[in-house]
Design a protein that fits this description.
heterodimer; A: alpha/beta; Rossmann fold; 3 domains; six-stranded mixed beta sheet; 19% strand; B: mainly alpha; 11 helices
């Protein structure tokens, strides 16, 4: 083994790796997933790996954990070369992974059986085995669930179980491969807190692969991957200050985007130092905004949003109760909600609060236990979900796109798949073709894609194809369950741009989400669900300004609001009489709104 | 849509039967399998029902769960009943109309077959799936078939495959439910139309289900790899199987019951 390769780091040297390169591969020679990649990760550090979908992040994780072996180049983990067969198992034992989908990494039926799976493989004997399992369960805080069935846990609990399973192997490296992607914000924070706590207590080297920029801000170092190679690396502050992340399919964290817009308007510059923490960033912004010679700036007024006032009601949920077993446990309790034509309504709440159950009622997949869902596709027409004769028309009026719709494609060609619903509607072949082509166009799929097999498409394209299948039925209302989940930041933006364009075309949209940032930015009104009860349907600025109420319903403010609220308080102290506009949820718009308010207040102050 | 089926699901409870060593339960299951197909006399079958009731009580399983276990096999059971009634021509004719001939012997056999099927499902559920976690069943089979390792049968691998298959039943049911809902919302209808159309309808469910199962299998394999799975060699067990005196008592008690049933049946013939 080469000398000089430190035992205190993971060292990746000029590594190239292609999937399916060994053994017979039927398809054309694949692109390498990772090409000539070199990087180092210090022992005990906390590193984020960022990059668009398909940039090679997950492959890197697999290479470090020797699940895959490089085609060329070498990887040395704490002084052990992964090409050396005699230390192969030592390296793998030393690093543990938590993956994205909790269901696909649980082996045991019972919680403690699953935690024991790793150490059992290592041949750890009782009583140490028992001690490790109990300790790992206690470390992540799910000891009291140890005898539960793993499939009965919530998503957040399942991911904690996955860390417990990893910790029980007593690794030195913990790799989180988009482990938080399917969690709601609360579970995500809890999950990360556990991992960070373990890193400090056990001296773990923590590597997190993520699309979430605020997660990257928590790390000591960031590595940006693009096209199978390292595009940039450094402290989060350096990464977010230095480079234009957009070209790698990423976005800066909202607070930093906000700050850069303020700096741009004021003609000031932000240094790397300023970006090292939110508090420091706020101090700098206050300094800029309260400087006596604040630059006047030409600020484009935001075009006023359409409000739902004076719009026709298109759906009405009335006193809706729902229980799965007909018994007394209700998944939904007394929901009342009106939806207006042409709006984007958000339905938010933690996982398992009843959001998906609610939207399943909207096109009569689940019948109400009591109460009613009424749909008014046209003036003077009322369809009722509990009435069997209306069901078919309801399903044509309300299109439902479930989470990960791409997993439900089944036909040989995209075209046939889009036509599925149309065939069920018994439309003529020409009509089907016309509608399918238009639907594909409206989701941004090129014409030649229609002839392809859906399984050849990329993840984002698959999702669009699945959406087109619902849109082809020309629903008046389109209900989307977590439409952006699993997409990278640019993919998410594109998805919401698509949703907005569908609204422009006249479709009423209902979005289910647990991402408050996006719900606030894109929805006209937001309805919160908590434990099966609907709390309110209000405009985002009203909803998110009532902090007390939010705490009561257990919903977090969007990140941008959290950041600017403190900033606004500080500004109010220094500029008495400052009058802030209604909050905006796009960081750039919010920056402009704050800037305008400060300018106005400054003028008054001078006078 | 499919969530009300208990068939093949573990039922969490703290009962004597839950605590009994899975190897003993597996052997008992085989014993009762033989008994169910041996006995014929109505009284013995009544007694068997009594023994199964005792087992239910020993397993502390709620009646509603028992019902959900039987319900999915009822159509098959009724189908067998009708088929046997119509096809068995031996015995005294009790009803005749055109080509339909029903005999007393035929009805007797048909009822016996239908009841056997229900009892079979019940005893499988009570002895194994309801009271024993899939991993324990796999452990038991691995241990019972361990001698076969000598002739190079991959006993551990087979047991592991089985336990994973069982572990994924609830997950796949959930997945099927999701796919069906999505297709129903696009106008699919699985319950009406001709038989062929209905079968076709299910194919559209099976394709995405297969695709996603392959994806899951791949991800699970990576996750197992990452957790250092390398076959049965050198593996330890968190809860190794150990036979206690209560296990022996339960085994003896239920074996005696089974023997009693056979003797009763023999003497009544």
């Amino acid at each position: 083994m080469g000398k000089g390769i430190g035992v205190e780091k993971i060292s990746v040297q000029d590594v190239t790796f292609t999937y399916g390169s060994e053994g017979a591969d039927v398809s054309a020679p694949a692109e390498p997933a990772v090409e000539n990649l070199s990087l180092e990760i210090e022992k005990g550090s906390y590193t984020a790996i960022l990059g668009a979908n398909g940039s090679g992040k997950s492959t890197l994780a697999k290479l470090i954990d020797v699940i895959e072996v490089p085609d060329s180049g070498r990887i040395v983990v704490f002084g052990k070369d992964t090409a050396d067969d005699s230390v192969f198992w030592q390296i793998r034992e030393n690093s543990a992974c938590v993956f994205q989908n909790p269901d696909n990494q649980i082996v045991g039926t019972i919680v403690e059986e699953d935690v024991a799976f790793g150490p059992e493989n290592l041949g750890i004997k009782l009583p140490e085995l028992r001690e490790r399992v109990d300790q790992a369960l206690k470390d992540v805080g799910i000891y009291e669930l140890r005898l539960r069935e793993a499939s009965s846990l919530s998503g957040g609990q399942k991911q904690k179980l996955a860390i417990a399973g990893a910790l029980a192997m007593r690794p030195e490296i913990l790799i989180l491969d988009e482990a938080t992607a399917m969690l709601d914000p609360r579970s995500r924070d809890e999950f990360l807190a556990v991992c960070e706590d373990m890193r400090i207590k056990k001296g773990l080297t923590l590597i997190t692969i993520t699309h979430d920029m605020s997660e990257a801000m928590r790390c000591g170092r960031v590595i940006v991957m693009s096209n199978g190679n390292k595009a940039a690396e450094g402290t989060p502050a350096k990464i977010f200050a230095d480079i234009s992340l957009d070209q790698y399919g990423l976005r800066r964290p909202v607070a930093i985007r906000f700050a850069y817009e303020i700096a741009r308007l004021a003609g000031a510059t932000l240094t790397e130092e300023d970006l090292t923490g939110e508090t420091r960033l706020r101090e700098k912004l206050i300094k800029i905004l309260t400087s006596p010679d604040l630059a006047e700036a030409e600020i484009p007024e935001k075009t006023a949003d359409v409000t739902s006032k004076d719009r026709r009601k298109i759906m009405s949920v009335k006193d809706l109760f729902s229980s799965y077993d007909g018994g007394s446990t209700f998944a939904l309790k007394n929901i009342n909600l009106d939806i207006f034509e042409g709006e984007i309504l958000g339905i938010v709440g933690e996982s398992g609060c009843g959001k998906t159950t609610l939207i399943s009622h909207m096109n009569s997949i689940i019948k109400p236990t009591s109460g009613e869902v009424e749909i008014y596709p046209e003036e003077g027409v009322t369809l009722r979900c509990s009435q069997k004769k209306d069901v078919q028309r309801i399903r044509q009026s309300v299109g439902l796109v479930f989470q990960y719709p791409e997993y439900q494609l089944f036909e040989e060609t995209v075209y046939k798949d889009i036509c599925y619903g149309l065939r069920k509607m018994k439309l003529t072949a020409e009509e089907q073709k016309d509608r399918a082509v238009k639907a594909a166009k409206s989701v941004g799929l090129a014409k030649d894609v229609l002839r392809k097999n859906p399984f050849e498409l990329s993840g984002g394209q698959k999702r669009r194809a699945a959406m087109a299948g619902v849109l082809a039925m020309r629903p008046k209302i389109l209900v989307l369950d977590e439409p952006a989940s699993g997409l990278d930041p640019v993919g998410r933006e594109e998805m919401f741009a698509l949703i907005k364009s569908l609204r422009e075309e006249g479709t009423t949209i209902v979005i289910v989400s647990h991402n408050m940032d996006e719900a606030a930015a894109y929805c006209d009104r937001i309805c919160c669900i908590r434990n099966g009860e609907a709390v309110t349907a209000e405009t985002p600025d009203k909803l998110f300004s009532d902090v007390e109420k939010l705490a009561k319903i257990g919903i977090d403010q969007p990140k941008i609001t959290k950041f600017t609220n403190i900033l606004k308080q500080e500004l109010s102290k220094r500029l008495p009489g400052i009058d802030f506009e209604t909050m905006q949820f796009d960081p750039v718009e919010e920056a402009r709104a704050v800037y305008r308010a400060v300018l106005k207040a400054g003028q008054n102050y001078v006078k | 849509m499919l969530s009300n089926i208990s068939l093949g699901k573990y039922y969490k409870a703290d009962s004597i039967l839950h605590r009994t060593d899975p190897r003993i339960k597996t052997l008992l299951y085989v014993v009762y399998l033989v008994v169910i197909f041996m006995i014929k006399s109505p009284i013995a079958i009544g007694a068997l029902a009594g023994v199964i009731l005792v087992q239910t009580i020993m397993a502390k399983v709620r009646p509603s769960v028992i019902w959900r276990t039987i319900r999915p096999v009822l159509p098959l059971s009724i189908f067998i009943l009708i088929l046997n009634i119509l096809t068995i021509k031996q015995g005294n004719v009790i009803f005749e109309w055109k080509i339909i001939t029903i005999t007393d012997y035929g009805v007797g056999r048909a009822v016996l077959m239908a009841i056997r099927l229900v009892f079979l499902i019940l005893s499988t559920s009570l002895m194994l799936t309801l009271t024993t976690t899939p991993l324990k069943i796999a452990d038991a089979l691995e241990s019972l078939f361990a001698p076969l390792k000598l002739i190079k049968v991959p006993v551990h691998e087979m047991a592991m495959m089985m336990s994973i298959a069982l572990r994924f039943i609830p997950t796949l049911i959930e997945e099927t439910d999701k796919i069906m809902k999505a297709q129903v919302s696009r106008g699919a209808d699985y319950d009406t139309g001709s038989f062929i159309n209905r079968v076709k309808g299910y194919i559209t469910v099976l394709i995405p289900l297969f695709v996603s199962s392959f994806r899951r299998a791949e991800e699970l394999a990576v996750a197992m790899d990452a957790r250092c799975y390398r076959g049965g060699e050198g593996r330890t067990k968190l809860n190794p199987l150990r036979i206690k005196s209560t296990d022996v008592l339960v085994g003896l008690f239920l074996t005696v019951c089974a023997a009693g049933l056979v003797v009763m049946d023999m003497s009544l013939r």
